[in-house]
Design a protein that fits this description.
11 helices; 15 strands; seven-stranded mixed sheet; alpha/beta; globular; 40% helix; 360 residues
């Protein structure tokens, strides 16, 4: 009887302590806002892969929500305001055009944290993140220069924001480092995601003589068009090997998972601070991947020599004399373009056929 009484007392004490103990921390609520459907490859797909990395790494410490196909502008502001009002603690806005809407919502919800891809304005509760995609684009241009027989590449581009302009220029410089007479023809879409228009633009470029295609748009349409037209592809954002198994020479891929994990963990641990992060080949946010067996040995060797120099910073794509496609010298020999100048790039290098449309 005494033993039973002691056991009962111990159980009562244990239960009392358990009732007084704090409960396990609630998961961090993280919302992702996407400019297009997730799909099977492309810009949004890569961000969603980063979301899955976040869930896998933090497990029950995080709970994610996704809103797809959110137009930039008023729709984005409405969606982010609703997410903040619903109790989301970290909102990841994955498109450049979400910057101004996110800033307005961040001002209304000072306890909610925001991360904006491609943005350049920060606030006490809003950070930006981006990558030097142009590093991978330079290597892609080298590959195009080695592979192209016509000396003409086609570039399907969304909007003339600096990130896109940087990519076109770096690709052209890389291509012309191999073939000084190479040309890069550009068609602007005035949208990030419109598979039909992306496909039409790609096929128009092929009719104009391009035998290598690349793009800065959000779907797989350009890759599929390259496969259909039997021209080469240097893919962007994702490995497009499944949709362009014969066309793809390589892919410049994006990897957001480590950044999302780091920022979410900082918020959980009470260490989150606003910042402007810029990744690149050096930290693996940008990679040249999926090199095709059909790639010429000379192209492989050239890339193998250049990539470590990009990784270390020994080589910079926007160094030395630079001339725009109107013949105006933009940078003198021996100079190196700084990060602020690159971030504001609004002109096209010599070799690009086309001009920059005005931004509305």
């Amino acid at each position: 009887m005494l033993r039973q009484a002691l056991c009962a007392a111990l159980l009562a004490i244990t239960a009392a302590h358990a009732a007084d103990a704090p409960s396990a921390a609630a998961p961090l609520k993280v919302a992702f806002v996407y400019v297009s459907p997730v799909g099977q490859a492309g810009w949004t797909y890569q961000h969603d892969a980063g979301r899955h990395d976040l869930e896998a790494f933090l497990g029950p410490r995080v709970k994610t929500t996704v809103v797809e196909s959110v137009a930039e502008g008023a729709d984005a502001e409405r969606v982010m305001r609703d997410l903040a009002a619903q109790g989301q603690q970290l909102i990841i806005a994955t498109s450049f055009g979400y910057q101004e809407p996110a800033l307005r919502v961040a001002a209304e919800f000072p306890t909610v944290r925001f991360e904006v891809a491609g943005g350049y304005k920060t606030a006490p509760n809003l950070s930006t993140y981006n990558a030097r995609f142009y590093e991978g684009r330079y290597l892609a241009g080298m590959i195009a220069g080695h592979h192209s027989k016509s000396g003409v590449a086609g570039y399907v581009a969304g909007f003339p924001v600096p990130e896109v302009v940087q990519g076109i220029n770096a690709f052209t410089l890389g291509m012309r480092s191999v073939n000084p007479k190479a040309e890069v023809k550009v068609i602007w879409l005035d949208t990030w995601f419109d598979p039909a228009r992306e496909r039409d633009a790609a096929l128009t470029l092929v009719r104009q003589g391009a035998d290598v295609l690349t793009n800065h748009s959000a779907s797989t349409a350009v890759a599929q068009a390259a496969e259909e037209a039997k021209v080469a592809l240097v893919a962007y954002q994702s490995d497009m090997g499944e949709v362009a198994p014969h066309a793809q020479l390589a892919a410049v891929t994006q990897h957001w998972g480590p950044y999302y994990i780091r920022r979410a963990k900082a918020l959980i641990d009470g260490r989150w601070q606003p910042a402007a992060h810029m990744g690149g080949i050096g930290d693996g946010m940008v990679r040249l991947a999926a090199l095709s067996p059909q790639l010429a040995p000379a192209a492989r060797e050239a890339v193998a020599q250049k990539e470590p120099a990009l990784r270390s910073g020994e080589f910079r794509p926007f160094a030395g004399r630079l001339v725009d496609n109107t013949g105006r010298e933009r940078q003198a020999a021996g100079a190196v373009m700084g990060a602020e100048q690159i971030a504001q790039m609004d002109w096209l290098v010599q070799g690009v056929v086309g001009s920059l449309p005005s931004r509305r």
